[in-house]
């Protein structure tokens, strides 16, 4: 009985073609989008900080940018820590108290969608010189007051302040004023109110509607020209793995 044998090259070529198609699909597929980290270093009774929170930062939630942003609020600003661990705030003891209160709220409700309304409420009161009415923000936002007061009265709010102080003082380059805003670690300097453009420029996924305004045209062009890039080293590793498994 005669047996019909195929050559090794006739078996290998189709496999190479299939591998090429797989690698092409991997290389041209869009990269998974990662959230953009935006950090705001501020102090509660600084007028510029309060104005930024109320008039500018709130746009993240109003305009639909919050799904693509990991917003970090760091209430310490230009405070000072003494060798004995005591904290002095630029605008006095009331600011130290409100910094600690806001720190407790951020820790208790880590999701910015939950804690930002409370922060926004306090900063709005600060703008109108009514910050002594800050406890009214519990009723306005629906957050429970007891966990926050427990956090503050136990001294944990001060511990959070010391952590924020260490983070603020470790900034490179050092912060020059407040509010000091960074996007993915990059300081925006005097252009901090234009934070939306930097967020849209840094975001790897499909741009949300808030990024499509004319004032963000530069950010859109940057995103379009950059595109989703694949790492050549990862492609080479994938190719080697596929060949080893296949053959």
Write the layout of secondary structure elements.
Elements: H1 8-28, E1 36-42, H2 47-57, H3 59-62, E2 69-75, E3 80-81, E4 87-88, H4 93-108, H5 112-127, H6 136-141, H7 145-153, H8 156-169, E5 180-183, E6 186-187, H9 195-202, H10 217-226, H11 232-246
Parallel strand pairs: 1-2
Antiparallel strand pairs: 1-5, 3-4, 5-6
Helix content: 40-55%
Helix/strand/pairing category? alpha+beta
What is the CA-CA span between the terminal residues? Answer: 29 Å
Rg over CA atoms, rounded to whole Å, is: 26 Å
Low-confidence stretches: 1-7, 21-32, 214-232
Contiguous helical run count:
11
Strand proportion, as a percent range, falls in 5-15%
Q: Rough shape?
A: globular
Describe this structure in words.
- By secondary structure, this protein is α+β, with helices and mostly antiparallel strands.
- Helix content is 53%, strand content 10%.
- The protein has helices spanning 8-28, 47-57, 59-62, 93-108, 112-127, 136-141, 145-153, 156-169, 195-202, 217-226, 232-246, and strands at residues 36-42, 69-75, 80-81, 87-88, 180-183, 186-187.
- A four-stranded mixed beta sheet has the order 2-1-5-6. The chain has a two-stranded antiparallel sheet with strand order 3-4.
- The longest helix is centred in the first third of the chain and has 21 residues, at 8-28.
- The protein is globular, with a radius of gyration of 26 Å.
- Residues 1-7, 21-32 and 214-232 have low confidence and may be disordered.
């Amino acid at each position: 009985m005669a047996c019909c044998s195929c050559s090794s090259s006739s078996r290998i070529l189709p496999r190479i073609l299939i591998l090429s198609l797989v690698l092409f699909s991997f290389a041209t597929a869009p990269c998974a989008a990662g959230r953009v980290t935006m950090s705001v270093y501020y102090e509660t009774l600084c007028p510029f900080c309060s104005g930024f929170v109320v008039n500018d930062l709130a746009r993240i939630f109003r305009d639909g940018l919050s799904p693509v942003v990991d917003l970090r609020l760091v209430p310490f600003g230009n405070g000072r820590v003494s060798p004995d661990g005591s904290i002095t705030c630029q605008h006095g003891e009331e600011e130290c108290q409100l910094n600690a209160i806001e720190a407790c709220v951020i820790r208790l409700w880590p999701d910015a969608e939950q804690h930002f309304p409370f922060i926004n409420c306090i900063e709005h009161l600060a703008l109108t010189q009514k910050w002594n009415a800050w406890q009214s923000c519990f009723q306005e936002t629906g957050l429970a007051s007891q966990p926050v007061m427990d956090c503050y009265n136990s001294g944990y709010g001060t511990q959070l302040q010391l952590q924020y102080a260490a983070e603020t003082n470790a900034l490179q380059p050092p912060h020059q004023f407040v509010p000091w805003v960074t996007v993915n670690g990059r300081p925006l300097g005097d252009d901090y109110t234009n934070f939306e453009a930097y967020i849209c420029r840094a975001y790897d996924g499909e741009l949300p509607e808030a990024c499509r305004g004319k004032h963000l045209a530069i950010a859109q062009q940057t995103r379009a020209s950059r595109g989703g890039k694949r790492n050549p080293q990862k492609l080479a590793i994938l190719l080697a793995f596929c060949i080893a498994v296949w053959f």
